[in-house]
Design goal:
GMP Synthetase, Chain A, domain 3, Rossmann fold, alpha/beta, 4-stranded parallel beta sheet
Length: 520
Amino acid sequence: MAAVVPPAAGAPAIRCADQERGYPAFLERAACIATALRAAGVDPGDRIAVVMRNGLAHLEITTGAALLGASAVPVNWHFQPDELRYVLTDSGSKVVFAHTDMLDRVGAALPEGARIIEAPVPAGTAAACGFPAPPPTGAYPLLDDWLAGHEPLDRPVDERPPAVIYSSGTTGRPKGVLREPVPARRLAEAVRTFLEYFAVEPGGRTLIPAPLYHASPSRHATLALAAGLDITLMPRFDAEEFLRLVERHRIEQVQVVPTMFVRLLRLPKDVRERYDLSSLTSVVHAAAPCPQHIKHAMIDWLGPVLREYYGSTETGAVTWCDSAEWRDRPGTVGRAAATAGVAVLGPGGEPLPAGVTGDIYVKPADSWPRFSYLGDPDKRAAMEAPGLPGYVTIGDVGHVDADGYLYLSARRNDMVISGGVNIYPAEIEGCLLALEGVRDAAVFGIPDEEFGEVLAAHLETEPGVRLGAAAVRAHVAERLARYKVPRAVVFEERLPRDDSGKLFKRILREPYWAGHDSAI
């Protein structure tokens, strides 16, 4: 986590639900956490885990660990004991901070030698999440009691390690992305880049609606703190509450995922028009493909304030485009920014010309910290591009145009080969989302004796909407080639997405491939 640069007195603060703290108080508490961690046996280079919802305590703990030279591991708090046990053990976390209502699962997953600190759930956070705040269990030290008597750390380390983010594990066990500590010079460069590309001024007002256990909101919070922005956290995303917070705090900049766009657009028109959103100057989105009709609708609503980037937990943002560029080139995720780079390679590692689809390799910006995978150096080595030092792939397929703008087709693992034809599900999912009544869509390959694979579409519909498979197929057939029409159409009550909008197709795909040879 980066160092926090406190703004001038009376300027920005950090808030979440019913809690708010100015930067001086925030910094002092984070520095006390650093001292308490040191007293608990945490040393520079060690790791601590945070199994908590968004909130001030979450940011204070991760900041305090960084001041000591230790890495925080924000953990997906939806995990069940087996998943928690894996991450806590794999990361070697010495101390685990957990909200009260998560202690049963965390306690059942605690590795030998690690200790738990209990963090009460603030009343406002509990209310936003739809449950009453539970009383402390008394089974573990409470955060405030654990901090009592500790003075702020007097000599923070010069190079602060970023958080260790675990990948979402869509194809198996997640891996921790371990990034090198950030020296002051590179931090300052990263902050300048953040302010430029996120289009926000120092001291500006930002809103973070996504969970901090994901890479993008975690990094966003890190740089927003370092830049001294006024920060509003949402305990959980709610579409109308999002609009209310933008109006109330005159939010200028926000980072979202396309799923949030869909939910915002599903609000009744009179609800959307009820709120003054004129303060917004930059709405950044990433993390998942955004269907073109959704993005057009958002620009029509908010104006040309949308900005998109492409990257990953490992690489950070690599390409960028603003609303004007996207309107000129619908579907692009932008072109390489600053010192970053993009290359599209063929099966033999040869560079492909503009317009030809292949494997995407990217070079992170110079200000981005170098990375490895915790306990798995082979995975890191396997990502590297042959003959292109510094370029790695995160498994995506796409092409660049003659001006260097990148277009995504699919994840390599998502691509369907049916009768020798490559089919990219993202295009079909976008088509399905344009069908009235469809809330969410997942398209993937299922086994077929004749073609090897054919398409299946699992759909989540709006409440009360009834669609038939024939209507769904007809909708696709009118807009796309016949071979892109799903053979199987299944309606789900809810598709398996996490809070960042990442879709776990593996869960849907596995039953079809049971007993077949396939890399699911």
